[in-house]
Amino acid sequence: MKKVTPVFWLQRPIHWSLVFSLATVLGSCSSGNIPIGPTSLNSRYTEEQPSLSGNGRFLGFVSNRNGSHQILVYDLERQSFIQTPGLNRPETIAESPSLSYTGRYIAYLTSDQGRPVVALYDRATQQSQIMTPIYRGWVRKPGISPDGRYIVFETASRGQWDIEVLDRGPNIELDIPNGATVAPPPTAP
User: Fold this and answer.
1) Which residues form the signal peptide (predicted)?
2) pTM of the model as a whole
3) E-assigned strands of 15-161?
4) How do residues 43-58 score in pLDDT, each as one tens digit?
């Protein structure tokens, strides 16, 4: 009797030229070509949670590059960072940035007396304001409308995650493109 051994596709001979070609392709995809520096978008530190402004010019993200967990804003057109005095407080973690149309308003998550709160930073006035001081329970994942009037977030005040919409009111200065018209708010019946 003759013994027959089945040959599976994994047992076929490897073509070394294919292996070297794949290794060359993968080697050329390394991150060694990414510019690293104090004014470049990428660094050797962790960058995460990106958010793009409505006009596509500004990028907000969380970075650990300066030794603390902070929100940075990068101007993609000028390829430089935007100064945001008053946004990142010492000894405080800032997370989940969301930018309005021109990046004037930044809704984000921070902590107040050890609990997470939704805050709003105005780049024009360079001031931050806590938007959820009275919410009991946890909040997370804030977002801001392109015009800056509405802020949405998740809250666990009822024992489950629900969505809240916060209306900043009709009298705020909206973040709209130059020359755009704004319709008046609808009146109640």
Assistant:
1) none
2) 0.74
3) 47-52, 58-63, 70-75, 80-82, 95-99, 105-112, 115-122, 127-130, 139-144, 150-155
4) 888 889 999 999 999 9
